[in-house]
Amino acid sequence: MNTKLPFFSYGIFRPGEIPFIGIKNFIDKIEKLTIKGHIQIRDGVYLFSEEFENDVNGFLIYFKSNLSESAYDFINSLEPNKIFRWSEKLDENSNPFNLLIGRSPNKGSESLEELHKNYSTTIDPYFTTGLEMLNEFKLPDLDWELKGSFKIQMRYMFLWTIIERFTFLRYSLGGDANSRVKSLADNEHFIIGLKNYVNKERKIFDTQTLKHYTLKADEPKKAIDYYYQVRNNLTHRGKGISKDYYILIDCYEELFNIIQFVIENTKDECRKNKEKYGRKD
């Protein structure tokens, strides 16, 4: 693949999508472009198909010459080779560009025309229904049958599912889930949210190694390690005693508010990018 060529975006890298933020700083210019083809959708992923000759609207993204490889590295980290293959096409003026074509696009997928045409990563069910369900959750009281403790455990683990979904779309640089989550430490919205919602310093210990982790509002890297270690402790042993119950309550309340703040502000970024580049759908 020639990384010096522009990239035709018809799916999650369009302006207004969460992954677009990851390539925004590499961009030189963007032009609207319509090409012939067909779009299928599988699990929320747009797959370009050459089977039909319909109009496919998208954006031709030109990257800064010294940053084009970095841009394509990021794109490749989110568009795995098992789902797509790269192809070089020509526009109406015979200028070449790179295009991601879906592998077996008709298997397990539906036509864009059959689905909600305005699907977007910003309205991903985890960021809408998932957060709504957590918003409706009432913090349980401590009880000696541990029902309240189990309830907060379930919500905390589901919150981490939402976090990992978000960080995959926002930061997937080919790393594992833990690496992506740690990228939040440099996210301006996470840094602000941490200062807004954390008002007390505290420590927790790894249940296996006894290494301690400290939570401070002005140290985002350590804060992520702290919240993630609470998650790991849940997978290694159950939570029963009253002290663990209150650790979970504090972590859940803080982290839920922080992540909700991060996602809402990211959606606002996406809205501004969509307006800036004239995306109408």
Short description:
The protein is an alpha+beta fold and 281 residues long.
Overall body shape: elongated
- Given helix and strand content, the structural type is alpha+beta
Distance between the termini: 30 Å
Strand order of the largest sheet: 1-3-2-6
- Uncertain segments are none
Total number of helical segments?
7
Q: Could you tell me the radius of gyration in angstroms?
A: 22 Å
Strand count, sense and barrel status of the largest sheet are: 4 strands, antiparallel
pLDDT averaged residue by residue: 88
Number of strands: 8
| Structural domains: how many | 2
Secondary-structure element string: EEEHEEEHHHHEEHH
The helicity comes to 40-55%
Percent strand equals 15-25%
Keywords:
281 residues, four-stranded antiparallel sheet, Hypothetical upf0131 protein ytfp, 2 domains, alpha+beta, 7 helices
What does this molecule look like?
There is one protein chain. The protein folds into two domains: 7-115, Roll (Hypothetical upf0131 protein ytfp); 121-269. By secondary structure, the chain is an alpha+beta fold. A hairpin with a 2-residue loop joins β2 and β3 (45-63). The strands form three sheets. A four-stranded antiparallel β-sheet has the order 1-3-2-6, with no helix packed on it. It has helices at 68-78, 126-136, 147-171, 177-182, 188-197, 220-236, 242-276, and strands spanning 7-9, 27-42, 45-63, 84-90, 96-102, 110-111, 202-205, 212-215. The longest helix is centred in the last third of the chain and has 35 residues, at 242-276.
